[in-house]
Amino acid sequence: MARPLSLQARSLAAAGIALAAFLGLAFFALDKAFFDAALSSQRDRLQGYMHAYLAGADTNRAGNLIPPEVGPDPRFDRPGSGLYASIVGDHVRNAKERQWRSPSALGLELPFDTELPQGATVFRGPVQTSLGDLFILSQGITWSVANRPELKLTLHIAEDSAALQNQVQVFRRTLLAWLGGLGVLLLLLLLGVLRWSMAPLRRVAADLARVERGAEGHLAGRYPAELSGLATNLNNFIDSERERLERYRNTLADLAHSLKTPLAVVRTQLESETDGKELRWTVLEQVGRMDEIVAYQLSRAATSGRQTFAAPLPLEPYAEEIVRSLEKVYADKQVLCEFEIDPDTRFRGDQGDLMELLGNVLENAFKWARHSVLLTARPGRSADSRSGGLDLCVEDDGPGIPPDRVEYLLQRGVRGDERVQGHGIGLSIVQNIVKAYGGTLKVGRSKTLGGARFDLYLRSG
Q: H/E element holding 207?
């Protein structure tokens, strides 16, 4: 398919067509006006010649008309000059003659035989004759002198049309040259205006190209008011696409991290000398857990965090399920996990969020603990909010986390010890879930066990 025309080419083509139509109509209108003015001038000139002949004519005692010997224009006295005069009627020169002609018209075939009544005026032309096209003005008059017979006459004045046609042709050539030059000038001016007007669009396209190449992160230029909204929407679209891509990457990483524990449990059971029934039960349990993890991670993009009207979930059953799995993974460490869970403690939110939260915090504690882990949970309130919530605390007797390393370890992909197996995203997942529920996460040192202490507060409404 042919490449579509650019906006500039479309605008220029449309303006060119409109301009051509306008200049064409202007040409015909001006040409018609000039021709009408030239024709009116032609008639006025012939009328002037007619009045001059009448002013120079006279009658003799016999009542015959005596035309002037010399015409008002030298061409009347020069044969075949292109300017002719004739008087038709009774008593022209003498009673026998009925027509008088100027010297320029003698012996020529001219349409001067028409006779008109008094006051009638006829202007014709161009009339085709053997001498060429002529403009002819004819007028009927009555000549009356005291004590002499009244004469009824018709005067004819004719002129070759070549002069008028030459004027018209010169005017048309001049007009065509000026209008054509004006059209070209206007198109060039329009092209300049279009390029200036389209410059912001070209700048947007150039900025988008830089964004595509990675040279820029956003459309950061200053654009006209008509394009500022477009630039803002494009920047929002770029941000949303980047966030979507980052969310997909994080979801895949979170999925891999979440499946690590069930797979480790299965691997541990397969490597141990466990009887078939217990192994089968463990594998089925962990496969079900993995199925729940996959379903949770796939729907996580639609999770909106805390849910005011969500059904409250007890913590202890889910904590026990996670701890059982972790005790199998870290069976060689013989870690003892104790619970101090208030019976009234409930979690208002998604079950998958709860499992992900407890699983990552407890797994981190099991990984670094020497022998003991403590999980404490109770209904709580934040210091700056009157709304109810949930307080969680997980402590271990491991080496703990130095205060200057806390912010660093909460970053995604960072591990506390590169020699320890892991992905470094568990604590980042915890932090994201806590933020989604409008809560807080604090990391410190356990006064009870001496290791790390994670205090989590989650809002429930």
A: helix 162-213
Say if residue 215's pLDDT is above 70: yes
- Distance between the two ends of the chain, CA-based, in angstroms? 58
Give the Cα-Cα-Cα angle 104, 107, 113 (nearest 5 degrees). 90
Lookup: tokens for 346: 């409930």
Is the Cβ–Cβ distance between 66 and 38 less than 8 Å? no
In this structure, what token pair is assigned to residue 398? 């491991």
DSSP string, 125-148: EEEEETTEEEEEEEEEEEE--TTS
CB under 8 Å to 107, separation ≥6 — which residues? 79
d(CA 347, CA 378): 10
Q: What torsion do the CA atoms of 439, 317, 449, 389 make, to the nearest 10 degrees?
A: 20
pTM (predicted TM-score):
0.51
Nearest to residue 448, comparing CAs of 382, 376, 359, 388? Answer: 376
Q: CA-to-CA distance for 461 and 458, rounded, in angstroms? A: 9
Q: Give the mean pLDDT of 401-415.
A: 72
* DSSP string for residues in 310-379: SPEEESHHHHHHHHHHHHHHTGGGT-EEEEEE-TT-EEES-HHHHHHHHHHHHHHHHHH-SSEEEEEEEE
pLDDT of residue 421: 45
The CATH T-level fold of domain 306-459 is: Heat Shock Protein 90 (3.30.565)
> Beta 388-396 vs 372-381: how paired, if at all?
antiparallel
Cα–Cα dist 21/198, whole Å: 25
Confidence of residue 418 (pLDDT cuts 50, 70, 90): very low
Q: Give the pLDDT band (50/70/90) at residue 233.
A: confident
Domains of the chain, residue spans: 7-167, 306-459
